[in-house]
Fold:
Amino acid sequence: MADGTRDLLRFATAGSVDDGKSTLVGRLLYDTKSVLADQIESVRRASVDKGLATPDLSLLVDGLRAEREQGITIDVAYRYFSTARREFVLADTPGHVQYTRNTVTGASTAELAVLLVDARHGTVEQTRRHAAVLALLRVPRLVLAVNKIDLVSFDEAVFTAIAKGFTGLAKALGYPEDRIVAIPVSALLGDNVVNTSANTPWYSGPTLIEHLESVPVTSPELDAPLRIPVQYVIRPRTSTHPDYRGYAGQVAAGTVRPGQRVLLLPEGLESTVATVDTADGELAEAGVGRSVTILLADDLDVARGSMIVDAADPPMVTDQLEATLCWLSEKPLRPGARLLLKHGTRTTQAIVSALHDRLDTDNLTFTAPERLKINDIGRVSIRAADPLPVDDYANNRATGAFLLIDPPTGNTLAAGLVGSPLVITELPTLPHRSGP
Structure:
C-alpha cells in the first residue's frame, strides 16, 4: 500500500503442471471483466483453431510463444486487475520444478498465495515444494484451490479429504489454521471462482474472488518499525533553499512523521525528522511504498546506502549473516565464493564462508551440501565487507532480504533471506500420486 490506506492486495499463484493454474487466472480476469474485447476475440479464434468448443482462457495469461506451444507457464507474469472492492497485483508463477526460482521471485512480495491442486490427484510433491517455498518466504496467508472439482462429480468427500491433508501440511510448515482456506473450484466452468456454484450446495464458504476481496491485507511491513534506505542525498543549493539537505528514498517499512526520533545506520547517528517532503509538498506522515525526501533537524554527513530507522526499534548492524539462499544461477555456489551483496541501496563485497544445509524439496528434509545448484534452497553463512543494518526476514521482509551478485557480469546469482530458517514439524502422509 502506497500510503497505508489504499486497498491493494498482492497475491501469487502456484501449482503443479496441468492443475489448471493458467485457466484459473484467465477465468479470474474474464469473469471480473478485466480483459479487453479484442483479447477475448483473439482467444476465441485461437481456441477454434485448436478445435475447442469453448474459449481456452489459459491463453489470456500464457503470453509467451513458448508457453502457448508447450501448454505450460514458464515465466513469472504480473497481472493487474480490480473489482469494486479492491485492486489486485497477481504474480502468476510457473509449475515446473526447474522454475522454482521463478516461484520465489513471484511470491517474495505476496500477502497471500493461491495454491492449486487437481481434485483427481490431491496434494502431490510439487504442492509440498510450493508450500515450503511460500512458508520460507513468510507469505502470510494460503488459499488452496481444489480445481477440476467437476471431474470428480463435485464430490464433497473428495474435497474434504484434500483440504484436511493440505491443512495438516501447512500447519507443519508453520501456518496457523486460521490463515489457511480451501475452496472447491472449476476454473474451466467457473464454479466458485467469481460466481457461487449451484453444483456445490455442501460448500458454504466464499468464492475465490470474494475471499480475495475480503481477506485482511496483512503485509508485515505495514506495522513494522520505520525503515528507509537512502537512495540519494539532495543538495539543490538554491537561493530559496541554501541549506537544503534531504535524504531521498522509499519507505520500506513502517511510517515516518515529522518530530520522529530516528537513527541513521550503519553510521549510528541520531536525529529528529524535521520535514517529510515530496514533489507535491510536505506530508504529515508517509507509509510503506511512498517515495519521500526526509529533512532532519541536524546537518549530518550521510550518503546513499545508509538507512533511516526508528530510533526506538532499530535493526541489528552486523557484517556476519546467517541466511537462507535461493540459488538462481547455472553456476553452482561453493564455500569461499567472493560475491557482491546488495542490501537496500548499499552494495558491498561479501564471502560465502560456509554452506550449512540444503532443503530437499522432494521430501522436505535437510541435507548437508557441498554446493548449491540452480533452484537449490540452502542455509549459509556470509561475511560482508561492511556492516549492514538488517532485520530478521520473518519480522521484516523488506530489510531482511538481499541479493548476491556476480562481480564480473553484474548478474543476480541468489536471493537471500536473513535469519530465521524454515522449521518443519512432522508432515502428514502424502496422499495420491506424485506430481511432475
About this structure: The chain has seven helices and 21 strands. The first strand starts at residue 8 and ends at 15. The domain at 8-220 is CATH 3.40.50.300 (Rossmann fold). The CA atoms of residues 46 and 109 lie 33 Å apart.
